[in-house]
Amino acid sequence: MKIATFNINNVNKRLENLLVWLDESRPDVVCLQELKAEQKAFPLRAIENAGYGAVWKGQRSWNGVAILARDATPVLTRDHLPGDREDMQSRYIEAAVRGVLIGSIYAPNGNPQPGPKFDYKLAWLQRLRRHATALRKTGAPVVLAGDFNVAPTARDIYPTRSWDDDALVQPESRAAYKRLLGRSWTDAWRSLYPDEPGYTFWSYLRNRYERDAGLRLDHLLVSRDLASRIRAAGVDREVRGRTEASDHAPAWIELDPA
């Protein structure tokens, strides 16, 4: 079972890129983030013509998350992160696909920091941790995949001091990610590649893609029962180099059958 995550950075603007990648890579499940499209503007027909069913939670101009399943329709279980009834941002969606519970995550960026946006980021990650604990206690196999907007360690960002004040690398952000992992969740990429960067994001500025000045922000976390089934993990880096590309590249894992 191949599960991918891709911050598409505007699903309609990048639709052709998405469809080409789906045809090339043929993942079984795809978590999308930053749809930047209201609910009725999601390109469902094109997605279905590519062989995928979908559930999604849109938001006009900002945010937005989706889950796609090849030759299947995801069974929606949740379209928001619990814990704050006033939070209307479309950042979490959850569905069952082929016996695995999938969460698509678009965590807050948190900039500028310090300030209310950073406070929201940390509170959101704490809510995610509580919900992840609740999911784990169900006993279901779970994959939490998406743009966590955290570079967890110094290995996850190219050598630089230019990001030192950014919310993505603050000690508080990294501590929140570490608490989320705890002893119950496995960062799939790091479990296979403890020393390789695995960058998934390159800013459009200063030729950072061409210089490979990247960050690893997109993660796939698997519940304990799935950790032994991780067969492979990768980043489709070349997708970031295409015309009209997102500033993220798809990251993916393959799981052995149960």
Automatic annotation (TrEMBL):
Positions that bind Mg(2+): N7, E34, D147, N149, D247, H248
Interaction with DNA substrate, annotated site positions: H248
Protein EC: 3.1.11.2
GO molecular function: DNA binding; double-stranded DNA 3'-5' DNA exonuclease activity; endonuclease activity; metal ion binding
Keywords: Hydrolase, Magnesium, Manganese, Metal-binding
SUPFAM superfamilies referenced in this protein's UniProt entry, alphabetically: DNase I-like
Pfam families: Exo_endo_phos (PF03372)
Cofactor: Mg(2+); Mn(2+)
CDD domains: ExoIII-like_AP-endo (cd09086)
Entry's transmembrane regions: none
Annotated catalytic residues: Y106, D147 (proton donor/acceptor), H248 (proton acceptor)
Site residues, Important for catalytic activity: D218
InterPro entries cross-referenced by the UniProt entry: AP_endonuc_1, AP_endonuclease_F1_BS, Endo/exonu/phosph_ase_sf, Endo/exonuclease/phosphatase, ExoIII-like
GO biological process, one term: DNA repair
Cofactor note as given: Probably binds two magnesium or manganese ions per subunit.
Domain Endonuclease/exonuclease/phosphatase: 4-248
Positions bearing the site annotation: Transition state stabilizer: N149
Family annotation (PANTHER family): EXODEOXYRIBONUCLEASE III (PTHR43250:SF1)
Family membership: Belongs to the DNA repair enzymes AP/ExoA family.
Name of protein: Exodeoxyribonuclease III
Organism field: Tianweitania sediminis
Organism ancestry: Bacteria, Pseudomonadati, Pseudomonadota, Alphaproteobacteria, Hyphomicrobiales
